[in-house]
Task: structure prediction
Amino acid sequence: MARPDGYRYLKTHEWARLDGEHCWIGISDHAVGHLSDLVFLDLPECGQDIMQNEPFGEIESVKAVSDLYAPMTGEVVERNDRLIEELDMLKRDPWNDAWMLKVRMEKPSEFENLLEDGSYQRMIDSEDH
Amino acid sequence: MRYSGITKRDRELMLDEVGVGHVDDLFSSVPDAVRMKEPLAVKGPLPEATLKAELDAMKSGAPRVSLVGGGLYHHYLPEPVSSLAGRSEWVTAYTPYQPELSQGTLIMYYEFQTYVCMLTGQEIANGGMYDGSTALAEAVMMARRVRKDALRLYVSEAVHPEYRQVLRTYLQFQDVELLLLAVDPETGRTQIDLTADQQKDALAIVVQSPNFFGVIEDVGGLEDDAFVISVCAEAQSLALVEPPRADIAVGEMQSLGIPVQLGGPTAGFFATSKAHVRNLPGRLVGKSVDAAGREAYCITLATREQFIRREKATSNICTSSGLMCLRSVIYLSLLGREGLQTAARQSARAAHAFAEGIEDVGLKRLHSGPFFNEFVVDAAARPGLFETLQAHGFVMGIPLAKWWPKRKDQYLVALTELHYPKVLELVQEVKARAHDS
Amino acid sequence: MRTIHESPIFNLARADKHGFEVNHPDAELDQRPLGFEERSDIGGMEQTTEIEVVRHYTRLSTVNYDIDRGIYPLGSCTMKHNPRLNEAVAADPTWRDPHPYWPESSLEGHRRVMEELASDLGEISGFDHVSLLPAAGAHGELTAVFMIRAYHLRSGNPDKRTFLIPDSAHGTNPASAAMAGFKCKQVKSGPDGYLRLEDLEPHFNDDVAAIMITNPNTLGIYERQFEEIAQALHDLDALVYMDGANLNAMMGYFRPGRIGADVMHFNLHKTFTTPHGGGGPGSGPIGFNDKLAPFAPEAENGIGPVKAYLGQWGMFIRAWTYIRSLGGTGLKQASEEAVLNANYLRKRLGDVLDIPYDTPTLHEVVFSDKNLPNDVTTADLAKRLIDYGIHPPTVYFPIHVKGALMVEPTETETLEELDRFVASIRSIILEALDEPDRLKTAPHTTPVSRVDEVKAARELNLRWTPDPRRI
Result:
């Protein structure tokens, strides 16, 4: 399945999408596919700062915990509390409703450091083999 | 070898199957230079009867009367507790990682969590810690996670001195300043003369109730935003004494169905509010359903634990104290509120009657604060009496000079429901010895 | 016979039932006021009758699996026979009831048992010093980690803050190290399943405080470069912690204290047959050399006590009894047969289960799920084993082996029981070919089937409440 346009990725499978001076942050379909039995999502509060490539939260399944890494640097202005309540949203559509954070970007140019869809897919392919 | 499963014949057959000539060949990966050449210099083997006789010869005599407490108390152990907890299905089972094969142990832990909540008035509790002292250390470590920037820890001087030492051990490499809160010499209660800001900024305030001197503390004056860790080393008191308001309540379960056994093993309890559940150390059992929709239990939130989260775990604890938790759960089920409160009242009454009775010979209680079943006696008026009694097999408490060299002639005396039927005789004996000396 | 469904005992408790009475009331004593306000309610606690209590805890016990029922081949857990003699001795009131604050004259026998146990553990492990104090294996690790930190601080090396930990290590290792403020660096095992000096060397620098090695490691493989690695660490003025979880493989064969380890822990509830009790209590003494002796909990300027009182006495006397029952020759034979039994299982199952490393193994063997047909997983195999009346081995550990199945039979199993295990596994693998669904939905014969762990974690219900309101 093709991924929607306008998204870029970290190697650790988090995505960012630009929206004016803000960006939206979530995790990719590939990451979701590898997570089963999700039970908990820990996201930072509004007002907190996050830094590109640094952990900003955790996602837990019954028997594993994964760190979530920030694709962009900035201040959290919104977080998706509905997703925290209803983790199954990730399975349905990781691109829109299941966003995690909305961030006021500090360095929009960081977006250029992220992987475009094609290179992201190549990375996944090489991981799987 | 007594417990060997295989015979000489089996051994030959198995070596043959594996394809080696001698069992030593299975150790071929261990370099020769490393291998022990000499036999292990360990005494034995002894057959069962000989071994028992040898052990019997090593036994020492117990005091005839012991009023020794200080965090470990001789309470009556009802026969059903040892009998049921001694069933090998409990004793020889492993940690319940396979829920289909361990519903018994899992339900027991769920009951333990429930009983701890009932006793402490807290919302959630874990499946037990090693003991009260380590539970306290873990509580402070948890406070570190919850209150990240706070560095000042206030600990009442009336917290069990060994617990305080353990706490110091755990914290010595951390950036935490441990400050002692003094005890009012009159009441025996902790003096918490901290400003509102000091309380708010503290990592935690640690108070034991009843405290080590037996006095029931009052933390009612603390600010709402102070983070309070309460310790209880005599769990029987929780039957009668309202637990203090606390953000984390920890303590020792030994009094509830666990033998003293020199202080170990026992079980610690650890309770707090729901909001802190992900910061809790130790094992948690939760209720769920099985594939057929039937009520079923399993270990839950294991992602906090060392075997999943490794260096980020909320604690390193793995094997804890299951069998001792089981004993306390059976004990509590057997006594219920009624039996527990009756036993607790009898402990308290025995202690109060003894304290009152020995006043006649000048042995005064040191403090004026309310107490449950333990108190400090000032024996300055009767020098040598403690030793005389001890020479006659009557150990009237613990000399506090053990921890406080200045507290000469002060003894910590504990009584329980075991002393209740004969407390007046004990008083008579003390009086008689006092008059003799 | 049908299993009776048992729910928490609180469902039977009522206010009009009577609890166990220790003493009859004494009217005169009971007149005395206590001087504090009495709590009337204990969080809703009520009474059950004695027969209810007896039945409840008897029925609950019967839905447990236990060693007395059959083989319990949990790798790394050393589930061996727990002798009845140990239990009887520990339950003797003369041994069981003494108080640590009693006069020393009443504790002489206990002191002697403890001294002899410490001395025997020293002899077995090759360490000159033993502290019996720690409450369990992980607690022993923590004690040792504190001692290591104290050692470096007193040597003027406060910056030695890194622990090297192989990927095959137990989770307690990094967790213990972190509790003393150490950073953990995970090191990959070599291609043959043991740790290689060359893989460690890139991590060597002035920050390295210690390495934590399990030997034999969690694959059951002897760490053949142990001495070289220990030497290299010592050259950095770093220390070597040996996780003693697998001591059952080495008694009388090699001694960690003589091959470069500075400190190790013992699990009395593994090697020395004290029972596991459904998750404890354990006992985790540590052995250490002269270098670390000044930092022991008991030393005058040491780290201080890690636990109140004298340690897990109830476990000491059981372990002492076990050691005396076997003697030096018996202990060596125990290790020998533990290794033989594990190798027998390896041989008998090696044709149907994948063995990820060819390297010889000692007391345990790790298989993987690589060869299992029809997408059957390690978990499926493990759950199906339950229907054969056998407790599954340790699964998905060590973490660096995909779908690990870690088997440790111990020396107390009989050949018949080992063969029953082999036959069960082989039969399950045949089932996996023909009717994989039988495995995927297993177990079928237990009082409950697979438990919904997602629901348990999402909808936390951690205590009984009188109404269905969740807490």
Notes: Chain B has a mean pLDDT of 96. Chain B touches chain C through 196 residues (CB under 8 Å). Chain B is about 35% helix and 15% strand. Chain B has two domains: 65-75+336-436, 79-331.
